[in-house]
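Would you be willing to look carefully at the protein I have copied below?

:::
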Amino acid sequence: MTIINHGSWVRYVPDVWPEGLPPNIMFCKRESDGVDWYDFMQGDAMAAGSIKATVYNGKVGAATRDITLLFPQAAVLLEITDDDVADPQAFYGGLMYDPVANTLTVPPPIVPPFVSPKQARLALLAAGLLDQVEAAVAAEGRATQITWEYATEVNRTDPLIATLGQSLGLTDEAIDQLFRDASQIP
């Protein structure tokens, strides 16, 4: 597989409106050299059968072999050659593009912003950390105990989570994984 970056594309309005085109047509051009999208599409800049993909904010939005299905406004246009994947959208859609390394990778799993107290405690129990967390909560004082006991949700950004994580020697990634695990508990 080879990834070819065909640049960033932006919307524009031509100085002279091409004859015979409807007034609601949109135009975009490559930022680096001003090449018009429609001219680019008609040329042989991309290999027949290659996968064409648009990347918005670092994430592949659309991936297809049919260039006429794309409009790369506000996107980076990629071409992926030497790949015979049957469904480009299913395979490449949602992947993250790193323009420096010129690579496509699976995005990191989403960390839920909060979980229920039940989910948090069951995840900690499963990880063998519940007794340690409860001891750390008890050592933090009454306000922390009340928060831990009566909170209606456990928020990932709550300073208490960072404090408890530090006291247990947990990394941010380990805490994120606990939140992911907890979110899977019904």
